[in-house]
């Protein structure tokens, strides 16, 4: 082989390698850590209230108006409860774990939930609104109800 052919072949290989590396290293899209999608959380219920009639408990709260224009807005309500016995009280700083009692389809205005209380227990309730994508909003105020009788 002549020197000129050897030179052209070397230049060809170097250019090919540089093009290959630039395509390989550039990739596609923007590099960086994954970012979760942005969405607006449903608002928190701030007026959770209760009424007791014997052993029957009635929770009431208001739901903000549905969003106009066909946007998903609030799809439903999750009712959570924590039940504690007066005989075996948890430690003061122990975390409290609420249990999902029911998912209720949302509607504007005042909503309610009924539950039966057992004697000798304290009950804590909270409400969480969720949207069509099942994204939870913030917790409502927590109400505490006792049935010592």
Short description:
The chain has 149 residues and is an alpha+beta fold.
Write up this protein.
There is one protein chain. The chain is α+β, with helices and mostly antiparallel strands and 149 residues long. The chain has a domain at 49-147: Immunoglobulin-like (Sandwich). The chain is built from one helix and eight strands, in the order H-E-E-E-E-E-E-E-E. Strands 3, 4, 6, 7 and 8 form a five-stranded antiparallel β-sheet that branches. A three-stranded antiparallel β-sheet has the order 1-2-5, with no helix packed on it. The radius of gyration is 30 Å and the shape is elongated. The mean pLDDT is 85.
Q: What portion of the residues fall into strands of 2 or more residues? A: 35-45%
Fill in the CATH topology of the domain at 49-147. Answer: Immunoglobulin-like
Rg calc: 30 Å
The CATH homology group name of the domain at 49-147: Immunoglobulins
Number of helices: 1
Shape: elongated
What are the segments in which pLDDT stays under 50 over at least 5 consecutive residues?
Answer: none
Describe the largest sheet. 5 strands, antiparallel
Structural class, by secondary structure, is: alpha+beta
CATH class type of the domain at 49-147 = Mainly Beta
**In CATH terms, what is the architecture of the domain at 49-147?**
Sandwich
The helical percent reads 10-25%
C-alpha end-to-end distance: 105 Å
N-to-C series of helices and strands: HEEEEEEEE
What would the average pLDDT be, to the nearest integer?
Answer: 85
